């Protein structure tokens, strides 16, 4: 349920080429099909068959899209339907065995049992390279399935097109109206052998108006076809090597762009050289961290996490610098600036972008510029909420782009016009028709009878507004600072002193009556309950603690979160987390709790922070197939792991503070882009010594639990001294 | 059944803005709906209601598409469905009366009875300007219907989009997969008053997957929406003038292009100045011909015909020079070169393009370049067959682009690389998979068991091949000349000496057995029967006559075509012509016969040519609402009228000969683009004097019935002497 994929990609690659093990529809007869949730990334380990290899995947999302341009090599009799998993021989899909499967950075291979084809995949940023080794020299087929996709449903494919350019090249596109309402992925394909014959699945075509195209034989080398549901097949004669290679390049602009991406990135047929070049890119990413861990499992976990933090946001721009914007116009970035897509911001503002501000500063600056371009191109003039492929999909809540921007500002990212960025933040935060903002601006809180999930929204807006205020303060734009400072206290307006929790209010001012702090599926909250969400005031933790009865009471309250026995009834119907993701009522498998463990620091109980950190690191991330306790959420779960195992965490992004936890590493070096290193030394690290006795920054003992970015940016030496004995100071 | 439209347009305008009187679907439950045929141009005079005003229309086609971006002004209660014709109050459509309807060049107006709104329309090349005068100052609504279209069916609209840019501007697009499989029309709209409120028909939207857009109120000023079936409404407060004006600009490239077209062509709100500027363009077109006729009806007919010859092909290019090509890429023409679309070539190669070679030489050269660009962009590397909006729709048969190119060459059109054009012709004519060409190349005729309508195809290919040969001869490319000269005799291979008709053959060589020369719906022919099609050898008429028994026998045979009594059974189920379009078995309402009347000249019976010409001109074109005897076919019916009433006709386009008929004009001056005039003087023209006694070219009596382009191109004086007495010589 991590919803990650095992396929080949380079860091932040546009092409993420991976096997899809089934093609479950999002809806059947207009009704949501809960089975689809498993296939957010296209792959489920227990599935017995592979339908094909598609070129775009989200890593770790909880809703989905993509799975574009599915390729399947087959041998023997041509079959144009995918068939069913229980009888792979009924279609072009194939059984496979995990024994014959290899997944490495920028390399995936599997033996397709039904076709006796060894499939190997590698990529460049914009091109997928397929190497298929057949067991027989003849009857080699390639299925190009433009119907297939992730979270498909009837009507999602609005148009697909294939054009055979010559015996070696085809181009085309797939246009969908799904989570992204207006998305077109253009492609170009080059084959290493000439096409012998080709055609289309005319069963699909006959279902629609064909006009005068009906005069042609669409199965007999007809050079172009267009339909909402289009599959094509290509047949080849092989030589003695029995190998057939494909390059499949993508573009989000047009077919010419895809061809240019291909000739630029993959000028020859050297599969191994592309594989090695991509491996080298991965090695460079992994090498940014040099860590020693207590055991092999931790080491696997750590570098798996690093890997997962480099799968998104992804490059959304051709080699020419062009990309299609939200305004449907083609934009061209200056050299050295890359446009990125896939901003799962409700997740990634928390730790992923702050992590990028340490180790991916150039990329993160480009991501901020991409978010600002989104805002300029948007009909709403809003920064992205959850954006992919130049589409706002409006998933989840908040306007957390502002947190990413404030964090970038406070951590000194260069090349960004921050005054313009602040304007974009303000414009976004004043969009009255968006998700209760009007109510929030009028009442000081989102009224549940005006917009649902009102508590979650109020709390997150208050935090976002604090980010805007910080940015305005830095830029000395005091009117904005004051407006948004005021708004940033809105969390107080949903605190119910009687219950001691943040609780939904109506427009009338009264709290809603029905209330169970542990119930996730009740009015006021989204993907969380009152217990979890009430702890969400990352920008004013002290004030929150005071509201909730002061430090002592808060410490007990917070500890009970981890120790309570949660009744099963509270866990039913929750798709985004697993049973294993829960400790008491603490839900590590989803984001609203990601800062919570660190709150003990504020009430003089860092020992509890330290204790629960070790538990989470060791039980919620496991070095096995189903090792994640929830969706990886585009790297957020993994970024939490990286920060936390290094010993600190950005509880309040937008500030320049990190909060000290307890390291899992035995030692670490983080190589910054400016050449400096953050060195982490951990004395007496062990399974038992999970408590921090003392922390030294550049040799000086720290007295506070806050570690400032200014102390890290030009390199630092952090020394943790560990102990088996809990301590309320360090 | 002329399938013309009464709306406003400038000559060859991209925008052809006209009322649609109904929106009959092409198919109901997957079954063809024959009622749709009436609505090829969106308008039927007898209809009691108007659904709205859309911006694109074909003039005179027999299959259809377009009807994009339908606008309807309404007053009173907002209604978001069109309602039904028998009860216009059930929706936004309106009853109207022809008494309150005015249709003039570049101006259309009507009173919308149900809403008491005076609608006035005018255009520039790329912008429709709407002026609505309401009877009340408030409750003014505009419906923007992106669902509506001509020849719509379920699934034809694949995607539509609306974005409200500010209080005065909206942009969007309509993407369809119909006759043109991949067509997107982008638009921009400017209102003269600020939008008060707006929204969308959420009934339509709720039928599809909405993703997280469901969190918004789509009826309450939500600034963008996308769906396959989308209607939007806009509400306005008016001032005391009670007027609301709209500019609606189109682009085939993108929304930016539509905005640029608007600001360039319509910088202000002066409806009258746009109307007058367009009128002046029309006046310039009509002024190219100065004719005197025998009566007012003829005069109306003549200039109506001129009007209809200037409605297509239409400009398909933004003011920037950009257009979207068949390869889905954006192309930019050099200054002074215009890309055109809508090539109904099976119709228009006959007389419309030859007419353009007299009076629209610059435009026709650009049309040839547009056809060549089509060929370069096409997956098939074929010149257009029937092309619109950068889509080949494959309607009808032949590859008559080659005729247009050969005619352009022989009539000296400049600015065309004719060697490249010849290559395009040859490539087209050798496309084996297209409509029996493979069979034709192998056997010397299209075998009916390999490709249907085989006789029609064989005859038209033979003529087209002759055109290619002539072009090759002129360019001294003798291998091509010989190949295609040989192919141009293929008509002989389908002549059946036993029946005396052109008759379908099988691959085995034998003629098909079932045969009735008058039956239109039999194997071998398309939109014609053996009787009509057997006369189709325009390039080798003498040889055809010899095949058919010599001149004397042919003269009798041909005359019987006009005098026979055609049984009703032959006329049933034929949609492209009216009963009134037939004389004997001569069908003037469709194209295969358009050269036939002139064939009497070859057998010494010009008197019969002359006699039947006058009958056709006077009975098949009438100065009344239903005056055309068949679809105008993008100007071909009208071009026939113009040539024939001037006294000559291009029986074999691609040659530089015209064939002398008999004028209907009393006198005529045709102003050529080079400043020269063709002057036609008709002595003793009258109702009775319909026979030609003598013809003088520049004072010299003509002895042949062929008039050569070389004699006309720098101006000429033609003098016809008429008589009531038939004569077999002139």
Could you describe the 3D structure shown?
2 copies of one chain form a homodimer. By secondary structure, the first copy, chain A, is of the alpha+beta class. In chain A, 26% of the residues lie in helices and 23% in strands. Chain A has a 9-stranded antiparallel β-sheet with strand order 8-9-10-11-19-15-14-13-17. In chain A, strands 20-34-35-39-36-37 form a 6-stranded mixed β-sheet, with helices on one face. In chain A, helix 4 (296-308) packs across helix 17 (636-646) and helix 8 packs parallel to helix 11 (454-474). The longest helix of chain A has 21 residues, at 454-474. Chain A is globular, with a radius of gyration of 26 Å.
H/I helix tally of chain A? 18
**What separation lies between the terminal Cα atoms of chain A?**
37 Å
Radius of gyration of chain A: 26 Å
Query: What would you call the shape of chain A?
Result: globular
Helical fraction of chain A: 25-40%
User: How is the main sheet of chain A built?
Assistant: 9 strands, antiparallel
Strand order of the largest sheet of chain A: 8-9-10-11-19-15-14-13-17
Task: Give the overall pLDDT of chain A as a whole number.
Answer: 95
Structural class of chain A: alpha+beta
Oligomeric form: homodimer
Low-confidence stretches of chain A: none
Largest interface: A-B, 50 and 50 residues
Number of strands of chain A: 39
Percentage of residues in DSSP E strands of chain A: 15-25%
Give a short overview.
Two copies of one chain form a homodimer. With 730 residues, chain A is of the alpha+beta class.
List the helices and strands and how they pair.
2 copies of one chain form a homodimer.
Chain A: E1 18-20, E2 27-28, E3 31-32, E4 49-50, E5 52-54, E6 70-75, E7 94-95, E8 101-104, E9 107-112, E10 117-123, E11 127-134, E12 140-145, E13 157-164, E14 169-176, E15 183-191, E16 197-200, H1 202-206, E17 224-227, E18 231-236, E19 243-251, H2 255-265, H3 271-286, E20 289-292, H4 296-308, E21 314-315, E22 322-324, E23 330-332, E24 340-341, E25 343-344, H5 345-348, H6 352-359, H7 361-377, E26 386-388, E27 391-392, H8 401-410, H9 418-429, H10 437-443, H11 454-474, H12 478-487, E28 495-496, E29 501-502, H13 530-533, H14 541-547, H15 551-563, E30 582-583, E31 586-587, H16 606-619, H17 636-646, E32 648-649, E33 657-660, E34 667-671, E35 677-683, E36 691-697, E37 700-701, E38 706-708, H18 709-712, E39 716-723
Parallel strand pairs in A: 35-39
Antiparallel strand pairs in A: 1-5, 2-3, 4-7, 6-12, 8-9, 9-10, 10-11, 11-19, 12-18, 13-14, 13-17, 14-15, 15-19, 16-18, 20-34, 21-24, 22-23, 25-26, 26-27, 28-29, 30-31, 32-33, 33-38, 34-35, 36-37, 36-39
Helix pairs in contact in A: 4-17, 7-8, 8-9, 8-11, 9-11, 11-12
């Amino acid at each position: 349920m991590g919803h990650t994929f095992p396929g080949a990609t380079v860091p932040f690659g546009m092409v993420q080429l991976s096997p899809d093990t089934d093609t479950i529809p999002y809806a059947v007869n207009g009704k949501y099909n809960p089975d689809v949730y498993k296939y957010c990334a296209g792959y489920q380990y227990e599935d017995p068959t592979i339908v094909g290899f598609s070129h775009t995947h989200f890593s770790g999302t909880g809703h989905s899209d993509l799975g574009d341009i599915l390729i399947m090599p087959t041998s023997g009799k041509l079959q144009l339907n995918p068939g069913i998993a229980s009888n792979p021989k009924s279609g072009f899909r194939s059984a496979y065995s995990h024994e014959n499967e290899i997944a490495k950075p920028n390399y995936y291979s599997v033996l397709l049992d039904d076709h006796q084809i060894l499939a190997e995949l590698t990529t460049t940023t914009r091109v997928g390279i397929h190497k298929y080794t057949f067991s027989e020299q003849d009857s080699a087929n390639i299925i190009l399935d433009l119907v297939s996709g992730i979270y498909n449903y009837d009507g999602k494919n609005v148009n697909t097109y294939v054009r055979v350019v010559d015996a070696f090249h085809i181009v085309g596109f797939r246009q969908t109206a799904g989570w992204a309402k207006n998305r077109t992925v253009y492609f170009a394909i080059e084959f290493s052998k000439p096409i012998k014959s080709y055609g289309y699945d005319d069963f699909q075509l006959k279902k629609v108006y064909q006009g005068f195209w009906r005069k042609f034989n669409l199965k007999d080398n007809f050079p172009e076809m267009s339909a909402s549901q289009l599959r094509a097949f290509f047949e080849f004669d092989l030589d003695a090597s029995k190998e057939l290679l494909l390059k499949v390049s993508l573009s989000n602009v047009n077919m010419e762009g895809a061809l240019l991406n291909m000739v630029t990135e993959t000028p020859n047929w050297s599969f191994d050289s592309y594989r090695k070049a991509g491996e080298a890119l991965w090695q460079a990413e992994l090498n940014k961290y040099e860590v020693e861990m207590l055991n092999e499992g931790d080491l696997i976990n750590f570098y798996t996490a690093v890997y997962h933090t480099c799968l998104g946001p992804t490059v959304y721009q051709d080699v020419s610098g062009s990309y299609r914007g939200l305004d449907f116009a083609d934009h061209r970035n200056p050299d050295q600036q890359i446009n990125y897509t896939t901003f799962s911001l409700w997740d990634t503002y928390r730790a992923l972008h702050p992590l990028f501000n340490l180790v991916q500063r150039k990329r993160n600056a480009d991501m901020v510029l991409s978010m600002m371009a989104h805002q300029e191109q948007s009909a709403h003039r809003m920064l992205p909420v959850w954006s992919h492929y130049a589409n706002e999909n409006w998933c989840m809540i908040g306007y957390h782009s502002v947190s990413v921007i404030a964090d970038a500002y406070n951590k000194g990212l260069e090349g960004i016009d921050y005054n313009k960025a602040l304007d974009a933040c303000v414009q976004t935060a004043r969009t009255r028709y968006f998700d209760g903002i009007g109510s929030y601006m009028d009442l000081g809180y989102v009224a549940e009878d005006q917009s649902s999930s009102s508590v979650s929204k109020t709390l997150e807006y208050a935090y976002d507004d604090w980010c805007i205020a910080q940015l305005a303060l830095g830029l000395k734009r005091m009117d904005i600072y004051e407006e948004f400072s005021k708004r940033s206290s809105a969390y107080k307006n949903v605190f119910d002193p009687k219950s001691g929790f943040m609780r939904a209010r109506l427009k009338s001012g009264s709290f809603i009556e029905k209330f169970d702090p542990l119930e996730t599926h009740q009015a006021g909250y989204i993907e969380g309950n009152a217990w979890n969400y009430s702890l969400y005031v990352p920008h004013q933790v002290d004030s929150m603690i005071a509201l909730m009865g002061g430090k002592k009471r808060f410490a007990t309250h917070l500890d009970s979160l981890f120790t309570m026995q949660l009744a099963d009834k509270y866990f039913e119907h929750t798709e985004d987390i697993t049973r294993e993701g829960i400790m008491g009522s603490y839900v590590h498998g989803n984001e609203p709790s990601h800062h919570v463990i660190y709150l003990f620091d504020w009430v003089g109980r860092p020992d509890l922070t330290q204790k629960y950190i070790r538990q989470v690191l060791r039980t919620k991330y496991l070095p096995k197939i189903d090792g994640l306790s929830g969706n990886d959420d585009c790297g957020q779960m993994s970024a939490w792991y990286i920060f936390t195992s290094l010993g600190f965490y950005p509880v309040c992004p937008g500030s320049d503070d990190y909060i000290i936890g307890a390291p899992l590493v035995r030692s670490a070096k983080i190589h910054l882009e400016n050449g400096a290193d953050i060195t982490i030394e951990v004395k007496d690290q062990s399974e038992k010594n999970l408590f921090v006795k003392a922390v030294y920054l550049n040799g000086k003992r720290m007295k506070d639990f806050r570690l400032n970015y200014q102390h890290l940016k030009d390199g630092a030496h952090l020394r943790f001294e560990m102990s088996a004995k809990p301590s309320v100071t360090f």
